[in-house]
Amino acid sequence: xxxxxxxxxxxxxxxxxxxxxxxxxxxxxxxxxxxxxxxxxxxxxxxxxxxxxxxxxxxxxxxxxxxxxxxxxxxxxxxxxxxxxxxxxxxxxxxxxxxxxxxxxxxxxxxxxxxxxxxxxxxxxxxxxxxxxxxxxxxxxxxxxxxxxxxxxxxxxxxxxxxxxxxxxxxxxxxxxxxxxxxxxxxxxxxxxxxxxxxxxxxxxxxxxxxxxxxxxxxxxxxxxxxxxxxxxxxxxxxxxxxxxxxxxxxxxxxxxxxxxxxxxxxxxxxxxxxxxxxxxxxxxxxxxxxxxxxxxxxxxxxxxxxxxxxxxxxxxxxxxxxxxxxxxxxxxxxxxxxxxxxxxxxxxxxxxxxxxxxxxxxxxxxxxxxxxxxxxxxxxxxxxxxxxxxxxxxxxxxxxxxxxxxxxxxxxxxxxxxxxxxxxxxxxxxxxxxxxxxxxxxxxxxxxxxxxxxxxxxxxxxxxxxxxxxxxxxxxxxxxxxxxxxxxxxxxxx
Length: 495
Ligand code: SAH
Ligand code: SF4
Ligand code: F3S
Prior knowledge:
Layout: E1 4-6, H1 28-42, E2 57-62, H2 66-81, E3 85-86, E4 95-100, H3 105-116, E5 131-135, H4 136-142, H5 145-149, E6 153-157, H6 165-173, E7 179-181, E8 202-206, E9 208-209, H7 220-224, E10 228-229, H8 232-244, E11 249-253, H9 270-278, E12 285-289, H10 298-306, E13 313-315, H11 323-328, H12 335-346, E14 353-360, H13 367-380, E15 384-389, H14 407-430, E16 436-444, E17 450-455, E18 460-464, E19 474-483, E20 486-491
Parallel strand pairs: 2-3, 2-4, 4-5, 5-6, 6-7, 8-11, 11-12, 13-14, 14-15, 18-20
Antiparallel strand pairs: 1-15, 9-10, 16-17, 16-19, 17-18, 19-20
């Protein structure tokens, strides 16, 4: 049983690289890179020989949520601005960087298996020494202990210290063996002049960093520092710049994106920021994730109703359907309060898709409490669910809570939950036959005349079209069927 499964019509959240929920996952690219790292370890030609005057190179692999992906785009921007060149394999790199995730134990362990690959491969080079850096949430959580566990690592840097990257890089380049950036308490955000964006049409914009909530199971407040929002004028300036350079779809990011609190005198509310963003010329879609139920207010729904460019999708993690478990999790809302938020969203004039995250097997979760989560699924009928088995994390209060649920029981609950949700989704998708969706085209499949893209409500649509050049365009697609994971359709003549 996989520890984490994205069932949202995996689909709903899409070509998972651009999933709307910041749920950690291993991308195909990451898997390919992993095999190249293995090949590297097995290879006899481990010695990297850069010529003296050659440009420095870096390799960067990212784990974890969309905030991490976007941080990596900014880190890459800092390196490119410094004259580095990005390479596709670790063996070609002077600087090998891993941007890590610590949300569940398996995610955190992945990076140590990556680092293990270099136990013998580094430190034996002629010419310029290769260096390895650990960035992100495992870096912040483990700190200098990473040097003891993997002494061949030279840089350990958490996300709250990225603004100091240029100085840290200068120290590494000057030959320092151990450089750390482990700020815990900062009121600054990470601003870059250059961001190397992965997707040519859809761009991420972080609007709030860190997290001040203290969910009992979660490492994020420890790994990403306190909540700090970016100045609304800065966010909008970045957005206008993106629109000028051809981006039509943007996604506002934050662990609790709707807790946004504009630090500038304008004191823009989150919903006002959304409306301003939706009106930027050239911008056709604005998404945002992840919303915390406590701060999800009616004005956000009103904004979505008021402006078509605001995507009709809300990712609203519930975690459990039992008010007792929610209290133990310190989620700050009850089942009833959460259901009221959903009712508010469902009462909008536009049909808004709602997706969620759920943890099964939280310490002390009884069978009855688990069944309450199942009944919540029946009640809400989510368009997509990311479900996880509870994983104890360092420093978090839940780790020392009594009545841990055995692993076998956790996986049973996960399987039951996913099956229930699958049935709900298949039924809901079946009803969409004949409907027309606007699809932002992300790619062309290998099969001739087949394309794929996302709807505003973040469903993946695979469709046939005789058009030749629709990448990045918005096209009408008539639904003709579905898989458990996506809509199937055809390019329609008009909306
Ligand atoms: N900031 C977001 C989610 C952050 S992490 C929010 O507040 O909803 C993404 C998801 O990982 C969480 O919603 C939760 O479902 C899951 N998660 C977090 N910590 C976990 C843990 N210790 N074990 C299992 N799942 C966890
Ligand atoms: Fe973690 Fe809770 Fe913060 Fe989300 S709101 S990042 S689950 S502490
Ligand atoms: Fe994201 Fe993982 Fe850190 S989910 S915030 S990269 S712990």
